[in-house]
């Protein structure tokens, strides 16, 4: 079945059966009924309970078989052991979508996993889609559908709006929903996916991307259980212009451990997930608060193309605090053009017309100043967003009317820009601004961060995204991991260049090859059994003549005989010694979730101490590789910082792109590739992989698994 | 007059005169009267206005002279040009404290500065203390004193509590006050210092440190106008156990300087201020929100000694998000002891007893679980704080009673630990927890950050602070900046060791000295006029014998003759060539606010690209220097990362401490000292300053200034 089939029935059903319906509105089987009755759900509610004639005033049915029609959705609130027979009965009845509140499945150990597989098998026979098990369910505010037992509804129903929430964790999803409500923010749907036996967060995102009722998608994930589907869903959302905000937990050592024991999922490497999800346009977040702030800002559907901020303030201090935050997070605050500054100085000689634009406390006497400074920021400053720091002044009952009157016309004159206030006061007063399309934040720094995220979205939408590659040739690799010389031959065929080099099998041959290549050369042992060649003396550098070559060859063989007498020796590699340039490393790791992921960094401490690396899912073209190279913190070193020549970034980018294509070509047997060091020579002089290790699963192992 | 004299009269006066009193409660001269009448200020309010008999129902006086008594405080709300005569009259009348609302002084250019100096002169004659001018004033909630015209009071009065706010910016200070109020947080005083002609934020902090009504001090500063007083005030506050939270704006100006590679320009104002203020115990913040969060947490006056967090959760997801945030900011979350885990697993087999402690949604049915898990975290886990993620569950009217009943006894059983909830719901419901001593946050990550800050305070209180040095000898320095050889002699006397070296004045002498020192040596020109010696070829390395020495000497003189023919040549420096070790730099920069500040970093890209430096105000002892060395991000390199030997950190620390003492000894003529590179040899082998530049103001210049 396709991933979206019958999901509409789960999220926006015309009828729903509650299996294990309860009269008690605080029990799992009673809460959804009570909520739907209260919210005025227009669909048919069919309680199922053999022991009752009515439930909460509704006619109750003794069995699934006895239902008067196939329910579009079913809510299953019975103990785990009864779930299989319910699914069977629902399937036979013709129900195509069931939400399984019941716990005691994959999250509860091996037996539960087996039970969950059994559920899936039954559901598959009937083409029945499952949400859960171990889910808190779904709500759909517009139609009053509350297929959930969340007690978050005890403190109030959600406000209707255009934000959709998809969460693996039920309680955390409901927390996001309640947080939105408490902040006056409107939601459309909440979908919690629990164990994700069938429907995943990816499916929920895909549904929201296509739904008219959702404009902003908030997601919480502990593990990505279906990476291709998730990335495809992100692409669809991006194409639809709907921002996806992603909180992926399990970053910390403690967090990762806890995530493994929660919701039956294993968290992948969070850093890889961050990189891959943001490649596909997701905004990666760490905390619910910033998620709601950005969702709020994005919910107005104004995404200016200018990634720049103007700050208009009645307090110099607040202007500086906001500017500091903007600089910290990289949101540009360009100065106003000189002419515009001069004009504003004429209007208010004691003001500051640069940016922040300080119209001083005089704006309390003349709210027109606020309008004038803000208009200048939008018009002459050309800022994507103008943030006005008005604090309690905006919350004043009297002034709020004057301010709104002055500012509302600007909202209409500049429909594609953002006007935001930092304001304190009664929610009812502040809501008037919001209703007029002016964003309201109570903290200047939170405002700056949320605006930055939305402005980045707008700027990204106006760029063509760097193309990812889809076509690639299969690469033929040996049955077991190749040695260095073999690896370099494979890599060279893929356009990843080693220095001139050749494997030799005698002292005479070593001298001959060295003379062909030209001194100075390096020599190193070729053996699949010796990993730390350098440490045992099986690498020799600075070989400058025949005597040196003979001596080095003998010394290497002696070192191996001495330190690794049982190693398989396949020869000695003689290579041109290349010096100068910038030492880098690049490699591939097969991520369990996202497949081969390329990593790039500078050599030495940059990676070891600073962890200054860039990641990207394979494959990708040279342009994307170039972006990746330049995204590391110390990219300036490649560009010629510290008085050295700029490195050949084009060659490096081509090599990295080729490596990413090569990695995908190898397929599932690839474990990792390690090119360390890669020497990036000065501009125009290329880049060389000086060492290469390719690790493969051996053919038999893979055969075993499949 | 001492810095605290008469400040009580400003902040907690028994009587107040309003000069320029207005009948209109929305005007500057009317607002304070209206506010005090409304708040029930018990002191005598004496309006002064020649045109009226009464003001807002109070008897009004025609002049300051005509007041029936000397007011303890005066509020001056007249145009700038009338302020001097008011001060004069107030002084004659015997008033000792005036708050000057009037603007148009130092903030308004040179004329205003002169006018401000005039005010100060008049005030000084009468021993009259001034707040402002250009201040929004003061309020003191407990006594209902509102010596302010802030319109923040239009949206409500502050709640009485134990937080004090001192702000240079009026509007920003009032924003903090309004923010506290809107969050249900109690304040004691707000003091805004405006132009700080007399009373500064330092004085306000000092007053709050001594005041019974303030337990937590929040400060906002744009410039530190009286550094010694501020640091002394911070020390008093620390000794009194009162946390000082500091928001120092103006960071972004630093960004522009950061690129420069000279030691002196590595230390921007804000970075230095951060370093120095936190040395004195201040908590440095960037945004009002975190300030209020930490103030709230600290206002309970519980500062556990354990810097560790336990998270109890009903949602695995939230537990992970909180853990991720704790790890990100370095708040330890140790696992529960095995025995305690086993016990909790018996209680709840499906729970997770490690940390986060997940008592699952089962806690909704059995609130006793929440108590049991929290108790275990406090007792067996020994955590300084336990954060319970309860979200909307805690906000439920019904459950809140049960939860409070279960948890309140823990609050009493563990008075020196923190119990906090992440909770959503009606403020009135949540306040019940707060009243019982349980902290309430609505965001788990904000909660983690605020708890971390308070736990660090507790941990810091239980440590002895690293001693700063007070005694130091004056250092005699030449009339102008010394050359390298002279600088090194001075430094050597202060215990900052150069390699064996000597200045020479002929080729023969060069050879003789080189042989005494022992080859290899380096040679470099000694000239006050040549800064970039290396670039013009006036430095020679790897000199291995007599021929080399003669050639190098000749080459250096030739290079100078060629590239810098007019430079004053004082000789050639012959020095032992030292290699190996870790390249560092250390230096001193005289900060305009805080005096000599030491900077330490590793050489090369560490400083240039990563800006990885540590700063500390001079002087300090070797222990503080050691902390400083080890506080840089790449300290692992000093400790022997990357397979190299650990560096002689003791020698480096001693050198840095000696340098800090030396810098203070030089006194005000010191501009900067630059030791770059310093070579830290392997452990036990010392550290050498290979190059040294001391920049002094010449004696005449200093004489001019004083």
UniProtKB/TrEMBL annotation, chains A, B:
Gene3D superfamilies: ATP-grasp fold, A domain, ATP-grasp fold, B domain, NAD(P)-binding Rossmann-like Domain, Succinyl-CoA synthetase domains. GO terms for biological process: tricarboxylic acid cycle. SUPFAM superfamilies: Glutathione synthetase ATP-binding domain-like (SSF56059), NAD(P)-binding Rossmann-fold domains (SSF51735), Succinyl-CoA synthetase domains (SSF52210). Pfam families: ATP-grasp_5, CoA_binding_2, Succ_CoA_lig. The keyword Nucleotide-binding applies. Residues 488-524 form the ATP-grasp domain. Keywords: ATP-binding, Nucleotide-binding, Tricarboxylic acid cycle. GO terms for molecular function: ATP binding; metal ion binding. In the N-terminal section; belongs to the acetate CoA ligase alpha subunit family. This is Succinyl-CoA synthetase subunit alpha. It comes from Pseudovibrio axinellae.
